[in-house]
Specification:
The structure is a homohexamer.
Chain A (H helix, E strand, L loop, with lengths): L18 H14 L4 H6 L3 H15 L7 H14 L3 H15 L4 H7 L8 H16 L5 H9 L4 H24 L5 H5 L8
Helix pairs in contact in A: 3-9, 4-5, 4-6, 4-7, 4-9, 5-6, 7-9
């Protein structure tokens, strides 16, 4: 079989990209050993690329009351709801790595109610899935339930904002047919990986 | 009645905001005569604010095969699906103004199938609503239908990206309880307004 | 553009209508200054016309524990659920007038949970939407919740019956393609209108 | 067991009813041998009672391109969708009698796609169920499909109006807890009944 | 009309069947006076036939904390949800016979919330319908509710297993177009039948 | 953390099991190197255990027009729809092994429309998911579409029966909280594994 396309849209050669976009892509390659296809496929539109990753970093890289693994759980659970192959596979890998747990990503993707998570994380994902599926029904009672699990209002904004950002990301990936890199499937699957 | 809150979260005084954020807000006030609450409420997090409006402008202000009115139709139709009061009211106003049509926004919000739009615009909104509700089912047949109405692949990206961006925006507005400014309700409602 | 049709079905000339139907139509024109299209389009079948408006008046014009504005809220909220352009636009106008509130109709149509209404009215609309969407699940617990907000059993019948009547009305309007009069869109939108 | 209530609401003694309502009830008792509970339970509100049965008769008793059995099929199929015990049981009985077929009502109630009906009747029920469940999506293509099966536009109005009227009826029956008379369950079940 | 087919698939002549399958079929004919079509249609695949009826008997014939009538209620309620004509008609008959109640089966099929059952049976059917429709959401709170109605854990397994087995059965019947025997429709409908 | 339970129900010690059940379990341990938890957890009820595995083997081990990998695709896709952690993880592993493809199982579980499969397999899974979610709507048009992809009627029975059997299996696993063995997560993930 031919190498499958990673997008319905043209993937620009690195040399044709604006400097800042190319620099970002080379940096991630340096760090990860490969370039996740989200970078290559979204580079088709540099201005949107910049806003996308600025938003991503503002949510996923900053200090937060949520651990980085928890943030990835939100991505995996809500992306599974949306049937987004790229995000479940890629962020499933990141979740395995960040949680140092080879089982968690598949559990969360299939049914977070059966996953090896704490009641606090269960409440977090219940809320994220409500925001993903029917945000118009969010109300005071949701804030109260989350507070009872120790989440502060800034944490709740984080859960909502990550869910909202990947609502965007899932839709783009689904429409353009973004294909996950083969590398992601195996990442972090070895027990006791570090 | 007291003035209702425009957000569950604190709204920062203008004087405390980073310069670029404040400048943007003052510019919109200068142009519109009031500050839409999306600016004030999202300023609670300046970094996300910057990414949000950079994304917004990249989609809504640029040249496109879609008219500005058509882009607003997408916002109104998909935001109504998501029960987002802020986006339907605010972008309904912008749609009325841009389309110079006082009826269109309400029609599109309630049921785009009954709106005074062209078959091409109907196909555009059918697709946007599919992306909003079940993007995982988007496939070749959707691209083919849109092409048969004269949309090019870049136009399709535009439809998808606007829908995706407001998927994010609707979820944030719903969770933080963003309240539309009273001014929006009446804007553009006078017949033959210009 | 040509004047759009107000129905898929023929609209009978006033002169051809039975006396009682014509008299009713002339009376509403006298009172409102225009004839709402629901009268003209349903006059296609005089016998159903008579039963329709007899039912309507029995619910909407009588004394009730619900104010007239509250009854219109029920119409707007449930008609929005059903995607009925005619009823949301026409009864949205009546709601603005009866509540002397230019914002309320759009709020209730988009998402009653975010509207400027009392907790009692919120419970009323929650119930109306349940009756509209899944009446087979109504049970004692719904009656108890409404009673806890001060509704008596006759009030509950009123909420249910108004919802049920507009379930009929919405379906007819959607099938025949009933178009709202342009006049409705602007009615009651001026602040402090009286 | 005590006799179960036939409504959550008081059932008025015949002697207290307005003359026209009582006369109607006595007539149906004379004809059927018992009084269907819909008459007794809705008599709680005589004005609504009158409008209800006027509407009912305008649709169900008149000349039509649909046979009386076909009209009952519409009632049974859409009432089953709405989980309305009264309407499925009572109109199931009437359908058996009118179609002289002891099997048809249960078939249509459970799954009209598997019922012993003609392709034309299948198209009729497909449309009725669409009107019952998502009338906002009805469009030209529905009219075309029905016309291809020989339905005229007045027949289509009939299908829609019967569905719409029982949308009302189902909701009232579900909310007030209208109980079907025991007599209905067995009516028309004998093979070759006449 | 010709005799309608009882399956999309060939129905094997009795003489061609393996001895054990034929013996089972003759035994049921001896006992019931006719052969329910589920035996004839599934005999198309003897190995699956054997497993199907072994499973069926393990659940439906054994001693249990659920009465035989209660087990049939579960079959009727969940099969109605799945639109399975065969199972609702055939097991509706068995339910009428086992409960010695000519009304119960239709009530449970249309809307178990309105049926003449105990609160304990209502809780049983609520759970069965959750298992049928969204088993992935079953959790501790469901077990607790059932225990509060006096169900033991083995009873809960029974409810779940009967629901699960008929999830299989409904899907097979729906796909192969299994037709209920005419005899079932009338069985057990006489009041005080024994 | 303690070893998590593999079922809400007691897991019987091997020594207490009937001979045939124990023998089957020891055979699978011999072959696979571990005992999949479905054997241990369902052994709680030996009679149901026997029927379950007889059914399973009749469908999954026999000669068929579907390859063994294709049969596992059906299991994975429909079990993901049902949120069944055990079946997606365990049969995902078997699918990877049987298809000699480390990527396919995750793709099919998340969104079969984006998986590396043939159009024929896509049609197979579309049908399986329809049987899983709304079997009451299956009709002639589904058989025709499958035949156009080269499936014979016995193949279609196979697709339906596998889907139906795992409809049962998913519901049992979800209710009893069946936990997948850790071993499954990594099985078959090495590229070019054999």
């Amino acid at each position: 079989m031919d190498t499958p396309a990673i997008s319905r849209y043209p993937v620009p050669p690195l040399g044709t990209l604006p400097d800042d976009v190319r620099t970002r892509i080379l940096a991630v390659q340096e760090k990860s050993g490969f370039v996740p296809n989200v970078f290559l496929t979204l580079a088709h539109r540099p201005e949107e690329f910049r806003a996308f990753f600025a938003y991503h970093d503002a949510l996923m890289e900053k200090e937060s009351g949520l651990t980085k693994a928890e943030r990835e759980m939100i991505v995996v659970a809500t992306s599974a709801l949306n049937g987004c192959q790229y995000c479940v596979v890629a962020h499933g890998a990141i979740l395995r790595v960040r949680a140092k747990n080879p089982l968690l990503a598949d559990q969360v993707a299939i049914n977070h109610r059966k996953a090896d998570i704490t009641p606090r994380q269960r409440a977090m994902l219940d809320f994220a899935l409500k925001v993903a599926a029917e945000s118009g029904k969010v109300g005071d009672e949701d804030f109260e339930r989350l507070r009872s699990h120790g989440f502060g209002d800034e944490d709740i904004w984080d859960i909502a904002a990550i869910t909202a950002f990947f609502a965007l990301s899932n839709r783009m990936a689904n429409v353009i047919g973004m294909r996950p890199n083969d590398e992601f499937y195996l990442l972090g699957r070895m027990p006791k990986s570090k």
